[in-house]
């Protein structure tokens, strides 16, 4: 097979669930002899500086600060004519069997038309619901499903984007246009949880076009786990970044009122400026901000924590930190929202609490801190569940079968 992967980054340096999934596809299918190509923005560092097709990467304006560049950036998010021309030229040269799209921020859905013009099947991954509910990025748990089919006016009426009519109107228009292009051109949608699949069905996508493929876990889960680390530890681990929608501010307030011998380690990309200021002003001594960690450092944090905490306040489609922690036999304390309950079973592989509910969150933390045997029991259950549910070999087998089925179905229909 010849597969073109579309992802805004051509690098494995970005630590995110989407990035790890994209590069797992790239690495594994390459090893199996398939021809895998990339279409991305021209943001460095590149995975391969000698990649033959770098000339087809459209220019990124996300990091530029001039007023003119910002105008281009926002207009590109609506429709990027350069990306459309570039991918058209790339398709002409490589002639792929299938195009697998993961992220399109700034590339825009302008890329769909030239793909479909060449009668190439399109698979589109929904790693989050932002393309169907832009308000999730600004209003947290108040996400809704009022924007159905081609009706995106509720976003404007409710001023879902930062309580701004103008911003909300812009996103309503963009989402309306994106829905039109997706409904018209995409052959198959892939979600990473059934919760996301159900959300998209309610939003107007034909259920027969949607497949669920849980995120995978690496084979390092086959290693022996030392559960005594849970008994010795005094800290919980957060790894969701500094965005408010990830619930980090709620988490910090929870540790502010917890006993000072119960500690929190915060790992992830970002400056954490707001959080550092709050911690300093309130003289909170049981929180340690580690910042971005490499894979080995993060694995050590997983191994030595009591539990991970995922206090998200928006629709999480999966919650990769929960599955990563489970590899090391660690349970999760997580918000009961989105696709998280499909990974974390309450009182079996972890503890669930109502998003933004500080009281419930602190009770969950105390429950594991004061009962390490329960944390170990839930961690063992989590490890068994995730290795069955998100087995890497099973994931890759299902992925290849999905690709083959779509390609064969498309070729058959083209011959009729």
Structure, described:
With 416 residues, the chain is α/β, with parallel strands linked by helices. The protein has 2 domains: 2-217 and 392-415, Glycogen Phosphorylase B (Rossmann fold), CATH 3.40.50.2000; 219-389, Glycogen Phosphorylase B (Rossmann fold), CATH 3.40.50. The chain contains 16 helices and 12 strands. The strands form 3 sheets. The protein has a 6-stranded parallel beta sheet, with helices on both faces. Helix 10 (248-257) crosses helix 14 (358-370) and helix 14 packs across helix 15. It starts with a strand and ends with a helix. The model has no long low-confidence stretch (mean pLDDT 89).
Summarize the structure.
The protein is of the alpha/beta class and about 425 residues long. Helix content is about 45%, strand content about 10%.
Describe the structure using short key phrases:
16 helices; 12 strands; Rossmann fold; globular; single chain; alpha/beta; 2 domains; six-stranded parallel β-sheet; 416 residues
